[in-house]
Recover the amino acids of this structure.
């Protein structure tokens, strides 16, 4: 009797395991299942971690409020290790193995490009929280974003330099092989020249470069009034430290949204004192929905023992998830096709990062925030719309 009971218990657990699959989560069969692929390890790990926290906050709030049509939403997270090839593999797995309804991710444009290609081919809607490269949504019917594009970001950065900082000679320094970095540098160049500005030096560095000293002395010798360096935070930390050695002050630098990480401040906050960058959001941005998001986020997460200030990654992750849930609620049935249609009909969605309408190219037109690094903190300075 006893052995039989033990046997049936084992059989039941085996069956449960078989249903939940290798992810080991207690997924119930009637949950609405969404996938997320993010850089939870590797060179851009903070991008993935922060985004995941934003998504999880949105999921908690949704499920506490009753879910979608009486069903709970479950998000399956996959780590692409900050590698484009892994991004494709993970998206394929989420679709073929887990049969997800829709996908959230990635942050870096290069990885949303590769993961998005799979999702688009397999006709699964994908919402990227923060990939800004222009080509991410181009000719991809199933790919959407809740952020501005690098064409818009480059325009705003150029106008800020020209109109607010009143500088006329700029230099460019960027990662030559990266979609995001080289695309944003090119956009800034185009817009700055249109305003009448001069690009006195334009330098792309090679992949995996860690010694920037030769580049930095060349950049300095061309005497720009400002250096636009739209790279990710990990490389920016190295560049800023080596720039200090080369006698280039923090106030010379301007960046893009790729700077947004606690690790930029921890690694080179002092070296970048006074620098500006364009971003999706700042913790002290004066938008009504931001305040409630910041409060909820700080109540849930800590960093170095204190309530954690959300980065724009977290805010964008939160908004991407909420926008997807909003579309899932509006979709007449829980199918990929109906969700895709509902996503494309999104109007005046009130997010923590501003109000947005999805346009015909599946992009979001939103205000762009200019942030300044002051005493090792990100401080809101201005907001501008791309023209
Ligand atoms: N916009 C960057 C890209 O497209 C990613 C990013 C967004 C990084 C926001 C930091 C903050 O690659």
């Amino acid at each position: 009797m006893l052995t039989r009971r033990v046997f049936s218990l084992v059989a039941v657990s085996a069956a449960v395991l078989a249903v939940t699959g290798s992810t080991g989560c207690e997924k119930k069969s009637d949950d609405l299942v969404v996938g997320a692929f993010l850089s939870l390890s590797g060179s851009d790990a903070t991008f993935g971690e922060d985004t995941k926290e934003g998504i999880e906050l949105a999921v908690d709030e949704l499920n506490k409020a009753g879910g979608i049509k009486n069903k709970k939403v479950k998000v399956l997270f996959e780590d692409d290790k900050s590698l484009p090839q892994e991004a494709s593999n993970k998206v394929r797995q989420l679709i073929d193995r887990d049969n997800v309804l829709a996908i959230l991710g990635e942050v870096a444009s290069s990885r949303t490009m590769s993961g998005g290609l799979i999702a688009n081919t397999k006709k699964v809607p994908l919402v990227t929280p923060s990939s800004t490269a222009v080509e991410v949504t181009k000719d991809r019917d199933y790919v959407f974003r809740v952020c501005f594009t690098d064409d818009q970001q480059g325009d705003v950065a150029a106008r800020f330099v020209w109109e607010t900082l009143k500088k006329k000679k700029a230099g460019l320094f960027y990662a030559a092989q990266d979609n995001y970095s080289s695309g944003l540098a090119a956009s800034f160049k185009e817009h700055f020249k249109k305003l009448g500005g001069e690009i006195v030096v334009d330098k792309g560095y090679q992949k995996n470069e860690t010694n920037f000293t030769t580049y930095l002395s060349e950049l300095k010798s061309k005497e720009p009034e400002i250096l636009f360096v739209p790279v990710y935070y990990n490389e920016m930390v190295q560049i800023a430290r080596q720039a200090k050695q080369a006698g280039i002050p923090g106030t010379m630098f301007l960046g893009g949204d790729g700077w947004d990480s606690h690790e930029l401040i921890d690694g080179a906050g002092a070296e970048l004192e006074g620098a500006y960058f364009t971003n999706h959001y700042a913790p002290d941005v004066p938008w009504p929905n931001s305040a409630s998001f910041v409060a909820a986020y700080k109540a849930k997460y800590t960093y170095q023992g204190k309530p954690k200030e959300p980065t724009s990654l977290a805010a964008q992750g939160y908004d991407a998830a909420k926008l997807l849930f909003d579309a899932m609620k509006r979709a007449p049935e829980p199918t990929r096709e109906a969700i895709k249609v509902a996503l494309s009909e999104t109007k005046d969605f009130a997010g923590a990062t501003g109000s947005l309408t999805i346009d015909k190219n599946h992009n979001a037109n939103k205000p762009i925030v200019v942030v300044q690094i002051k005493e090792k903190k990100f401080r809101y300075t201005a907001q501008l719309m791309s023209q």
Notes: Residues 1-27 have pLDDT under 50 and may be disordered. The longest helix spans residues 45-64. The pocket of phenylalanine is lined by residues 47, 107-109, 130-133, 180, 257-258, 260, 312-313 (CB under 6 Å).
